[in-house]
Every structure is written in C-alpha cells, then in structure tokens.
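Priority: low. Protein: AraB protein. Input follows.
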Amino acid sequence: MINMDLVKTSQAVKNGQVSLGIELGSTRIKAVLVTDDFKTIATGSFNWENQLEDGLWTYSLEQVWLGIQTSYRQMAANVQSKYHEPLTKIDSIGVSAMMHGYLVFSEKDDLLVPFRTWRNNNTEQSADELTKLLNFNIPQRWSIAHLYQAVLNDETHVNDISHLETLASYVHYKLSGKKVIGIGDASGIFPIDEKTGTYSADLLDKFSDIKKVAEYDWNVKDILPTVLRAGENAGSLTDEGSKLLDASGKLEGGSLMAPPEGDAGTGMVGTNSVRKRTGNISVGTSAFSMTVLDAPMKKVYKDIDIVTTPSGAPVAMVHVNNSSSDINAWVSIFGEFAAKLGVQLTPDQLYERLFLESTHADADAGGLINYSYLSGENITHMSEGRPLFVRTPNSHFTLPNFIQTQLYAAFAPLKIGMDILSQEEHIQTDVMIAQGGILKTAVVGQQVLANTLNIPITVMSTAGEGGPWGMAVLAIFAKRNNNGQSLEDFLDHEVFVDPESMTLSPEPEGVEGYNKFISRYEAGLPVESEAIKTIKEEKRNE
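Result:
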C-alpha cells in the first residue's frame, strides 16, 4: 500500500515547497524543516557551549558556521533517508538566535573583537548611565550597552566600527547580503518606537549627543541593522549564502529570507503568544517571560525590559541569565555515577527519572537552598557565577528534595522579576504558555513553574522545540504575506487551529512550599555574594 502522506511530502521536497527555521540557542543550534501545513518533516542539531575567555562569555564564529552546517547536513540527510529526495530547493528560510550581545565589524567585515554574548555582566556603568539618560531601562546585555561600555573603556576597536549585529542578523547578513533585523530582535539592541516600527529617533539622537560618542566618525543610526516587521521581505539566499548553509553545494540560492529574529520572538510565535494580554515563558540555559502589554508600564524598572513581538507590539520581558545550567551539570554527575555502575541511560531517561523523584519531595524542598549561578545574574545583582548548594544540619537532605531544590532554584530569579509585574504593576494575562527543554518531562517542571508563579501554566506539544519551529513559521508567514493579514490572525486561523496543550493550575500546598523556599533563597543571597568575592575563578585545562 502506498503511503500518500509520504508521497505528498516527497513531492513537496522535490518542488521546494518547504521552509527552514534555524535557531542558534545557547546550548544547541537546530535546523527544522517544515511543510506548508507547518508540520516538521526533518531536523538536525549541533550542541555547543559558550567559553569564558579573558573574563567574557563568547562563541567563536567558526563554531557558529560549523554548527549551522552540521545541523543543516543532518537535517538534509534526514530528508533524503525518509523521502528519497535530495534537498535542493527551499521556498523560505528564517534565522533566529540568542538576543542581545555585541558583534561589531570593520568596513571589510573583519570581526573587531570576539563576540560578547548576552551572558556578560561587564556593562553595569553603561547600562545605568543610559537608563538614566533615556528614561528607559537599558539592561546590561543589550547591544547598545555593550557599545557604550566599549566607548567608556576607550577600546581602540570602536574607531573602526562599520556595522553592529546580533547573532541572528549577522548570520542573515552572511546568507543574504542584507543588513536587516526583525523588530523583536532589534528591540534588544535599542528602544523601539511602536508607531514608527524602528529604533526611537529621539533616543538615538540623545545617544548620539553623548560627548564621548560624538567624538567618533560613525553615527549610531548608520551602524545598526535596518528594522523589519514579521512578514516583510528580508532578501533572498545568495549563491554564496547557499554554500555557507549547505557545504555539499546541493542547495540552490534564491530562497526568500524572513526577517531574522531573536529567540524570545520565535518562542512567542511557537506558543501563539503574540496577541495582547497573552504571555509565554521560556526556560532553558537562561529563562525569560514575555507578557504582551495592552497598556504602557507606569514606571521604569531595572529588572523589566520593554521589547516587542515580531510584529512590533510592546512586551514586558523578565530575563534571567541562569536557569537550567546547574541542573544539567548535576544530571551529568548522576549519569557518570550510573555509568560506573554499568547502567547506561540516555539523557532523556536521566532527566525523567530524577525529575520524577522530585514528586516525592517536601513542599518546601526540605530546607535545602541552591543558587544556580553559572554566570552573573542581573535580577539578584550578582556580577559573576558561583553555583552554590547550602543546607543546615537539620535540613531534610534526600534525593527528592535535592532534585526539587534544583528545579525551585532554576525558576527563582524569574519569580523575583515577575513579582514586579504582578504585585507592583498589577498586570494580568489571559494565558501564559511555557516552553523549553526543562519542561520535556511531562507535568513535573510545569507543575513546579505553576506553583512558583502561582498562575496556571499551559504547555503545548511543541514545548521542547518551539523556537526553531517558530522561526520556520515566520518564514512561511513571510512567503504568504501578500494580503496584509496580521501575524496574530495568521497564527490563530492557520497555524494553531487545533493545538494540543495541557494546562496545570497552582497547588495550594506547592505554592506555600515554594514561598518558604524563596524566602530562604532571598535571605541567603549575601552568602552567594560573598562566595563571588572570596572564591576566585581559576582557569583549568580541559
């Protein structure tokens, strides 16, 4: 019997009626190929880690391209094996990546300093000065904070800046030749004017008028990528770009390129959270919540970013630098121990078994405390990372409580930030959807998050892979957007017609237990601060 779905998909691949989403996350680069009905037909991935070099977190551009080519090659091989057609044509392509950071290039496109990622907390002076000057919260990880800090530091490379990029806009530029950026990603570079759909002209002028900035030959307006909204044409894949993407040379140029977006924006698309009064939470190496505002914030808060959806609506973003990294490290240790006993478990099996143990924990995690700070944390004002586990002699030290405190700690900075929205701004959402690898084990992480924030949390079937798939959806939107349909309506009426989802409400006992944990957590923050002062970072050979 002929499988008609297989035949149909094979024909779509042959005709190039497919779209590709690529996302460069903090621990994984992933390529997702989808058909015009938004179904994933092939994926490929590449694991990578940031490196701490000369006190700054970075990734090499060589790793960027190795990761993109590896994930693309895996995806293309997946297509060939399943559908018996080589991947030679793709209708539309979109690139997304970690937001913020600092990639600056000379006129000859030479990288002037190693990529400075969102994870760095070396821009406190510039962020504080710009926040006061612009009356707009400029977090340390924003690109403009990195630029101004380099100015304040009198770094010699600043003289030679021709253009500044985020990771997504850089990759897009190399693939298409266009120095453009999606409005959501752009909102992590510099404040956006919702009415004009680009950087705020008034605030750009204020920045340009700063005495030390005015000394340079470049103007900030000229070095930033051009802003585009979701659905706009962001160029085409060039022949040179196709070779960068597909090292085998089989892929033809000419694919429509969607505006490159940040991972926050693709997370919103992947969870259908772009309409006002909706929100989503992404939990991975870092974590952030995105609440689409229906009214302006009353005050400027250092811990609340104002960014935008991929269509340009304002969003209150709570971003924390540390979430699952410490859990990943502990799970790795448990995996090593299991291997010593001759028990071979996959990573998914390890996470599932350990997370399920936490369901037997005390509601307050037995009095245990954990600080999951692999790097500095803006929400709690920690300049560097010192992962720290603390207990008292009479704490209830059990495996379930230990795993529970890891989960509790992963969400702790996020809770501290989101309490500002709920308790001070009284912002409410109609729905809050969560995604991320920490939620792949059914129910466990989702229930902890609901208890942490004391709000219902919805998880969709795409919880673990929302970002790159969301970028592929934006690529299809760019391809189809010839009738003026809004992104909100496109997602509601075409993409999420019958979504698979599950919602969990807070449990009173769990909420009370988490509140006890967070009280101890906040009381112990001076211990974490002292650890940073007294335990110095040491370089070790791998």
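The mean pLDDT is 93. Residues 399-424 form the longest helix (26 residues).
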